[in-house]
Specification:
The chain is mainly alpha-helical. It is built from three helices and no strands. Helices cover 74% and strands 0% of the residues.
Length: 125
């Protein structure tokens, strides 16, 4: 019969704790991978929709050039799609960076207020 020494018990406990933490990080990694794939799918779909909308507008304009009026096309239920909105510029700052930027601006504002107060209190300097 083997008995666990304090060292062995500590190692076993550490392995259990690490296994739990590793499982959490693996779950996080899988979720982030899924999110990245979904973002890529959205980008691909937006690009395809924008291309299809442009083709539809081109065909609509060709029909008008070919003698159809906008009223006739509309009456037939054929309307050119509106231009597909361009994706907004992605902000490349992480939430932590936004936090640091925001607080740096606040600190700068406080420094400026302090300087103005000192200047107002001591106009001759």
């Amino acid at each position: 019969m083997t008995t666990n020494t304090g060292k062995q018990a500590a190692a076993a406990a550490a392995k259990t704790l690490l296994a739990d933490r590793i499982a959490l990080v693996e779950t996080l990694g899988a979720a982030l991978d899924t999110h990245r794939r979904a973002e890529q799918a959205v980008t691909t779909a937006r690009t395809a929709a924008a291309t299809a909308a442009q083709h539809a507008r081109d065909a609509y304009n060709a029909a008008k050039t070919g003698g159809w009026t906008a009223a006739e096309l509309t009456k037939a239920g054929l309307r050119a799609p509106a231009p597909y909105p361009q994706p907004h510029h992605q902000d490349h700052h992480t939430p932590a960076q936004h936090h640091r930027i925001r607080h740096a601006r606040r600190r700068q504002g406080r420094r400026d207020q302090c300087r103005m107060s000192i200047a107002a209190a001591h106009p001759d300097e």
